[in-house]
Amino acid sequence: MLALMMDRPLTLPSILEHAALYHADREVVTRTVEGPIHRYGYADALGRARQMAKALLALGVRPGDRVATLAWSTHRHFELYFAVTGIGAILHTINPRLHDDQIVWVADHAEDSVLLFDITFSEQVARLAPQMTTVKTLVAMTDAAHAPAGVLVYEDLLAAQTPDFAWPDLDEKSASGLCYTSGTTGNPKGVLYGHRSTCLHALALALPDAFDLSARDVVMPCAQMYHANAWCTPYAAPLVGAKLVLPGRALDGPSIAELIAAEEVTFLLGVPTIWVGVADHLDQTGGQLDSVRTIAIGGSAPTAALISRVEQRLGGKVRQIWGMTETSPLGVINTALPTHAGESAEATMQRKLKQGRGLWGAELRIVGEDGAELPRDGKSTGALQVRGPWVSSAYFKQDGAGAFTADGWFDTGDIATIDPEGYLRLTDRAKDVIKSGGEWISTLDLEDAACSHPAVAMAAAVGMPHPKWDERPLLLITLRPGQSVDPEEVKAHVGARVARWWTPDEVRIVEELPLGPTGKVLKRELRDRWITPVPASDS
Length: 539
What we know:
The chain is α/β, with parallel strands linked by helices. The chain has three domains: 225 residues, Rossmann fold; 161 residues, 3-Layer(aba) Sandwich (Rossmann fold), CATH 3.40.50.12780; 105 residues, ANL, C-terminal domain (GMP Synthetase, Chain A, domain 3, 2-Layer Sandwich), CATH 3.30.300.30. Helix content is 29%, strand content 24%. It has 16 helices and 25 strands. The strands form four sheets. The chain has a 13-stranded mixed beta sheet with strand order 2-1-11-10-12-13-14-15-16-20-19-18-17, with helices on both faces. Strand 13, helix 12 and strand 14 form a beta-alpha-beta unit. Helix 7 crosses helix 9. The longest helix has 17 residues. It is globular and about 70 Å long. The mean pLDDT is 92.
């Protein structure tokens, strides 16, 4: 017997419609790329999103088409989160930190038809757009006074339309967004989000044991809107009517601290390097923030020293989170249980160093080499797998199918334990990728670039601890017989072939690389031999 309940689809435009109706004047504040602070209410945002939806339709965008952005966290990007998805098209947020070749690759792989970009990327777009085989339309996300020549202008397109627009009926299971991973090995892989999955994810984010958001909050995502949908906060904030503060491109310590103070931000989220910069600035100025309630830290694990420093300087409590592009991205969050009320400060810190507990919608398990599930005893270590309504079931165009198990779980590539209280703790990575500033760096790409130098025989890239970026690449190389080379020459050679921020901090020439029985380099042995840990107090 079926229930006698209304069947209303979970679609993303309904979130902004709700915010405009019940929180019309609650602000969306942006530090624009042009310079000034821009602010308007959710009702204004809805009107402009409807206008842009009509403009996109006038440009020929149809349901299922991919519409790309190369943009920071701004009010225009926020409008596109609803305008593109609301007409049944798919918003493809391109990460500008990818290497130029990878930006072109993901645009072609996604078959993007339109590219909207912030003017800070004007030169890059002029250089790369001719290489993109499917992009036919370029739109500068600015006004006519700031737009480069030869492209359409966002504000002109919007002004040509009226806000009287009815969103089409959409299947809640239809695709809404496309984000590519940072390419841990080889080319990035596309994760295709849906209306239903994203709505459920946004609802879960707002729960008290997750981000604990309400209309009384002021939310400032310092994870950019090109990075896993800014951790879904552009949807979760209007869903509850929270004020939303978007930092634009300025993620330096002084700029972030200024916005926090001026807008009385209560909830912050971002990777550890952001908060290092803010804490450094407050140390230098003697400043203190008094509005912050919660700082969610993800992307890479914060040290105990960083947690203590952030809580002291920013005034709120740190909640570590873990997730991936493939999990929309929230998988777990570190929230205290009632039994922790009387725990010591030392016990609290040890708990906070764990990634967190699962919430409804994200099921976790760890499995051994034989595929059997391991006990949640905090000691058994295995491969971390996850499933749920906002977890990817396959990559776009079925790339990388091996990450998905036959019984319906996603294999994260991480190694972890889960304790009896349900807290997840990552212990290692199954793949030897490097995570710097919350972003992955592919060791294979670094090694391939190094080995393209005529003097290099073999190369191995490993992550060495860094007080600001968490990890930075160290490249170890062996030389071909009779060859010699300056390490700085190899460093420059690699830097010319990868994203600039991927460039190794150091290149060392070694006599040999330790090899395992299958001929693979033993990177754990390399780390033990060549890397000296950075003390926590230096974080």
